[in-house]
Amino acid sequence: MATLPSVRIRILLFDGVAAGVALVMRDIFRAADARLGGGRLDVRLCGRPGLRALVAGDLSIRLAPLTGRVDHLVVPPLEPGGDPFASRPAEERLLARRHAAGAVVHAACLGAILVARAGLLAGRRATTHWAWVERAAAGCPEVEWDGTRMLVD
Fold first, then answer.
1. How many Cα atoms sit within 13 Å of 122 on the Cβ side?
2. Which whole number is the average pLDDT over 62-71?
3. Which of 107, 93, 9 is nearest to 50 (CA)?
């Protein structure tokens, strides 16, 4: 039987990200990989070029370099109280480049605003935290924001 190729999943960390949620996402993917027999999901926490670690409260998270093929790039939610419209040009460029290179980009909650600001949701339907839908529509009018849905494909 042929060996199936590994799926490369990268979780993007940046200033203001909900680091604890990102760690839970990583652990869920790793648990899924274990259930698949191991070696199928290559899951790593990464950041923009040059960002080698992220400090969030008393957590210090070492980040893997974002190199090579990426199949799925996940944008976690932001920390409560954070500004999803804060300028993050390096992350926006990274998302746009990786998407253009073939990565499927996923976002959770307010992470969708970062994906929208990267230009990846123009003309598409998206959702985010219900309390931010109106502000998302005002800040990213090229996106059809749907506050009635929890998931949008």
1. 5
2. 94
3. 93
Q: Which residue, chain included where needed, has tokens 């949620």?
A: 21
**Residue 101 and residue 120 in contact, taking contact as beta carbons nearer than 8 Å:** no
How confident is residue 13, by pLDDT bands cut at 50, 70 and 90?
very high
67's tokens: 């190199």
**Other CB atoms within 10 A of residue 130 CB:** 12
Three-state secondary structure call for residue 121:
coil
Rg (C-alpha) for the chain, rounded Å, is 16
- State the burial class of residue 44 (Cβ atoms within 10 Å of its Cβ: 0-12, 13-18, 19+): middle
114: nearest Cα among 143, 133, 141, 86: 86
